[in-house]
Amino acid sequence: MAIQFLKPKLTDYLNKQASKWQNGVCWRWPDAAYTLEHKLAYLEREHYLMGRYSWSGLIHDWEKVFLYFIPWMTEAKVTAYHRKHSPHHVECPKRCLVEHMIQSYIDWDCAPLTKPDKPLTAYATLLYLYPDEIEYMLPVCLAMNPKENLRQLPDTHKITSKTYVFQSDDYNRRLYQQVKKTLWKMLDCLPTDFDDIKRWYYPKDFHSMLPKVVFLKTLLIVAKSRGQKINGETVKDILTSKLIDLDHYQQFEPLEKPLKQEHSWFALSDNPFLE
């Protein structure tokens, strides 16, 4: 059963409370309201992508709400503690399962639903903030959203950080080539038979997996969660067309604003890899 978590009156209230944030204030209800609204968005997005709610989704970011009300825990300390102890964050030492990466994807991908300061999709977040994770997270991004536009990125972050995609043509091209290389690794000897995919050997730790194995494991998890099967031929055709499209260009193309994000609180996302 689907639940509408982002109800207009509730989200309007939480959004108004979050907008009252003040730097250095110990009684940080605005921070808690911001986190609560994000939790609701996570659950809606989880159902949209996975077809169900999970225990990890229900407890997502739960401790942050309480930590914000501890006077000696500054906002920076809360963030650091949360990232160190939550496997859906790249910084967490316990992060090792493909399930953790799926949680990361949902966490990144639901941000535009309630966070005006974070308008990027999961794929754009990967390239802008975590380019060192491309070989692990790009397969997850494509398994979760086969319609992902790999070539165009919103140029909304006019920043000077080392990971800003459009900081220079040279950096843009190097990152673009890394995406192409990872996609090629995913396609190399990719099995198309569903039974072969199920029989594949999947190490427990995703750090021991090649991009292709991460991709297949993610697809199996998503298919099981949604009660569907993988269409191997369609998978290969779509990934091949994406690689051909990337081959026609040399670097990412900037978009002035993010593309409209498809979302529904009651329906499932359209995933052509599954049937």
Number of strands: 2
The separation of the N and C termini measures 20 Å
The chain-level mean pLDDT equals: 92
Shape: globular
Uncertain stretches: none
Strand pairing plus helix content: what structural class? Answer: mainly alpha
Beta content: under 5%
**Strand ordering within the main sheet:** 1-2
Strand count, sense and barrel status of the largest sheet are: 2 strands, parallel
SSE layout and pairings?
Elements: H1 8-18, H2 29-50, H3 55-58, H4 62-67, H5 75-85, H6 98-109, H7 111-114, H8 122-129, H9 134-144, E1 152-154, H10 169-187, H11 194-199, H12 211-226, H13 232-247, E2 253-255
Parallel strand pairs: 1-2
Commentary on this structure:
Helix content is 53%, strand content 2%. By secondary structure, it is an all-alpha fold. Strands 1-2 form a two-stranded parallel ribbon. The longest helix is centred in the N-terminal third of the chain and has 22 residues, at 29-50. The chain is globular. The relative contact order is 0.13. The model has no long low-confidence stretch (mean pLDDT 92).
Overview features:
about 280 residues; mainly alpha; two-stranded parallel sheet; 13 helices; about 0% strand
Brief summary of the model shown:
This protein has 275 residues and is mostly helical. It has 13 helices and two strands; from the N terminus they run αααααααααβααααβ.
